[in-house]
Each structure stands twice: as C-alpha cells, then as structure tokens.
Design goal:
single chain, 110 residues, mainly beta, Thrombin, subunit H, 6-stranded antiparallel barrel
Length: 110
C-alpha cells in the first residue's frame, strides 16, 4: 500500500519562479516552483512561510503574471538551506485556474 496522499496528479516544473507574500504580515520572499497540480504547488525557498499561514504567489508563465492565493500545508527541509513548502490553492480563487491552464499549456509546448 502506498503512502501517497496526493489527490491530483503532479507535473514537474522547470524555471518557474514565484514571489511570495505572507497575508496579514509584511514578510515577502521568492522561490522556485518544483511541481504543480490542480490543487496546489510545491515551492522551494530559503525563507519558508509559517505553516498554516496564507500566502499570495505571483507567478510568471508565458509573459503573464498570475496572482494566486494559497494555504501553507507543510514545510520540510530540502538541501542547501532550502525548504520545500506544500501550498494548497485557496478555495474559490479564480486565479488558480488561469495559472494551472497557462502552466499546462506552456509545458505541452516543450
């Protein structure tokens, strides 16, 4: 039996960068998105947001910047003073659908 808890398939991402802002605070940072699903993303960053916090991601895909709200579901140490953050898209956020569609369209061209 697998320990896999993911509900949606994941798609690896290359060279997808994001700016991140913690909602309700002044913390800002940056990161690289390592994979994408319909439900969320994995963000690798040197400055992780607090677990259970809310964030706003600004992600550029195909010369368009998408703004997506997400909830921080997990933070784990990665290599080289980096952290992997599992971010679940906020329910009813219209920005998530546009981002996922643009990401998948961009990936299909490669």
């Amino acid at each position: 039996m697998s320990d896999e808890k993911r509900r949606k398939p994941r798609f690896d991402a290359e060279n997808v960068f994001a700016a991140i802002t913690v909602v309700g605070g002044c913390d800002q940072g940056f990161g690289v998105i390592t994979n994408v699903s319909e439900g969320g993303v994995c963000l690798r960053t040197p400055m992780p947001p607090p677990t259970s916090g809310k964030v706003i991601l600004r992600i550029s895909v195909d010369n368009t910047t998408h703004e997506v709200q997400a909830l921080v579901r997990r933070v784990s140490e990665a290599s080289g003073a980096m952290y992997d953050c599992g971010l679940q898209f906020a329910p009813n956020d219209p920005g998530k659908e546009a981002f996922v569609e643009a990401f998948l369209a961009e990936q299909s061209r490669h």
